[in-house]
Amino acid sequence: MDPAKPLTYTAFLEGRRLITGPLHEVAVAVLRAQQRQPDGHPLVFNDASGQSADLDLRGDEEAVAARYTMAAPTPTPKGRGRPKLGVVAREVTLLPEHWDWLAAQPSGASVALRKLVHEARRNGGERDRTRQARDRAYHAMSTLAGSLAGFEEASRALFAGDHERLVTQMAAWPDDVRGYVLELAEPAPG
After folding, report:
1. How does DSSP classify residue 172?
2. Mean pLDDT, the chain, as a whole number?
3. Is the dihedral of CA 32, 33, 39, 45 positive or negative?
4. Contact 151/138 with Cβ under 8 angstroms?
5. What whole-number distance in Å separates Cα of residue 188 and Cα of residue 130?
6. DSSP state, residue 2
7. What is the DSSP string of 122-144?
8. What's the whole-model pTM score?
9. Spatial contact of 145 and 173, defined as CB atoms under 8 Å apart
10. For 4-45, what is each residue's pLDDT tens digit?
11. How far apart are CA 190 and CA 185, in angstroms?
């Protein structure tokens, strides 16, 4: 996900889009929808992943909004490494020949690994964005439309990258569901 773009969520009720926006706004809209329609079953999706999100809607609107308002990040204590660069230490498991190759690099193992990752991201960027978009769309589609006519064929078309067939298979679906799936299926700009 683009760090400059704020994280958004989308809520649906009975196949209709209620709202798209920051989580605190979506949570309040879902609370209002449940108050108007207690038998309804709202669904909320993280737009970056397509995964459904469970919300805690206890309390009044103010309490719900406060629960999902993002607080400013607290500064992390300084530790080892290069915190200004955002370096995070994690364990990597490699074969002995990989460690030998890394040890022979003039800049050291960490720099060599970072360069390899940057190169792989640069070379596979479009393919990765396409895969992420497909997965994002499928997560939401399976929850919103898993029981709708044409779901299986639409899934096949999505994974085959056949946009025209995907649109055809979703023709009978609610407009908001179809539109949302198509939005999520678009790869993020590079």
Report:
1. T
2. 87
3. negative
4. no
5. 8
6. -
7. HHHHHHHHHHHHHHHHHHHHHHH
8. 0.74
9. yes
10. 567 999 999 999 999 999 999 999 999 999 999 999 999 999
11. 15
pLDDT tens profile 121-157: 777 778 888 999 999 999 999 999 999 999 999 999 9
Residue 109: band (very low, low, confident or very high) from pLDDT cuts 50, 70, 90: confident
Which pair of structure tokens corresponds to residue 123? Answer: 């070379």
Task: Output Rg (C-alpha) for the chain, integer angstroms.
Answer: 22
169's CB contacts (< 8 A; 6+ apart) are: 150, 151, 153, 154, 157
Q: Looking only at Cα atoms, what is the longest distance across the chain? A: 67
pLDDT greater than 50 at residue 1: no
Bridge partner list, 46: 9
Residue 23: is it exposed, middle or buried by C-beta count within 10 angstroms (0-12/13-18/19+)? buried
The pLDDT score that the predictor gives to residue 110 is 81
Query: b/e for 44-79, b at 16 or more Cβ within 10 A?
Result: bbbbbbbebbebebeeeeeebbeebeeeeeeeeeee
- Give the DSSP letter string of 49-94: T--B------S-HHHHHHHHSPPPPPPPPP-SS-GGGT--------
